[in-house]
Amino acid sequence: MQLFSIFGNPVAHSRSPLMHNSVFKHLHYKACYTRTLLEDATKLKETFFHLQLSGANVTVPHKEAAFHACDEARGFAKEVGVVNTLVNENGKLIGYNTDADGFLYSIASFENINNILIIGAGGTAKALSKRFLQESIKVSVLNRSAKRLAYFQEIGCKTYMWENFHLTHYDLVINTTSAGLEDSSLPAPQELLEDILDNTRYVADVIYGKVTPFLALVQSKNIAYKDGADMLLGQGVLANELFTHFQLTKEDIKREMQKSFLL
Ligand code: NDP
């Protein structure tokens, strides 16, 4: 029996145990997935091996610490310096990042995405923008304040604040701000958002578990969208493939993981 866990602080709200256990149970994979509250990020590696884990996910606020704890980071994790998935490979801690690819997987049904507007300039926006640029997708970033925009200019994104936003057509608009998560705010002034939404084919939001004022506005305009649950599912499917060493098919993992969203 293999053991997996998610590390975070807080971690009680995480849906990862439900998602992965649903796959293990229904696909008869001998494993169990639990959660571990980790207060001190410097104890990540020691705790991982003490618990004799085969793999783990890492969430807020330890994703950068997880990168430093790894013996080796692979793929996109190496490029962004952020790890959300750990695999025990013969006693070595190998780090991956499935967040950005999980997002791409979640929007696979969106066609011809060449020009994206990201609202917000935090950690999630950084990972997504870097991944989109790798795919030769044009990326613009709109944030309420200036200080975090420098990074995006350096990597080749157009950047705007509300005051100097220049409206154009986008294929996809993504809200990566936490506006509406615990309050009833929109990620930008309503008038500006209405103009933006009237000029995009698709929308995605990273928040899950509730209809934020932003998503309510999107729904009122009948635009095709994905919410944060799709991104959560996407990163989970790719992490599970790594955990089970690709013995299960992506389609089977996705189907069983989706069942846990109904619980
Ligand atoms: P950060 O704190 O790094 O960045 C938040 C960004 O949102 C900043 O640019 C901030 O602007 C902006 N912002 C915050 N509040 C408002 C507001 N009221 N109006 C306008 N802009 C606002 O957060 P993360 O990138 O780490 O996470 C963002 C969200 O993504 C969280 O809600 C998180 O739960 C979610 N998430 C979901 C995942 C999933 O699987 N579905 C995966 C990862 C994250 P400023 O720079 O001015 O402060």
Structural features, described:
Helix 6 links the parallel strand 7 and strand 8. The protein has 263 residues and is of the alpha/beta class. The relative contact order is 0.14. Helices cover 38% and strands 23% of the residues. The radius of gyration is 19 Å and the shape is globular. The longest helix has 16 residues. The protein starts with a strand and ends with a helix. The chain folds into two domains: 127 residues, Rossmann fold (3-Layer(aba) Sandwich), CATH 3.40.50.10860; 127 residues, 3-Layer(aba) Sandwich (Rossmann fold). It binds NADPH dihydro-nicotinamide-adenine-dinucleotide phosphate. NADPH dihydro-nicotinamide-adenine-dinucleotide phosphate (NDP) binds next to helix 6 and helix 10. The site of NADPH dihydro-nicotinamide-adenine-dinucleotide phosphate has 25 residues, from helix 6 and helix 10.
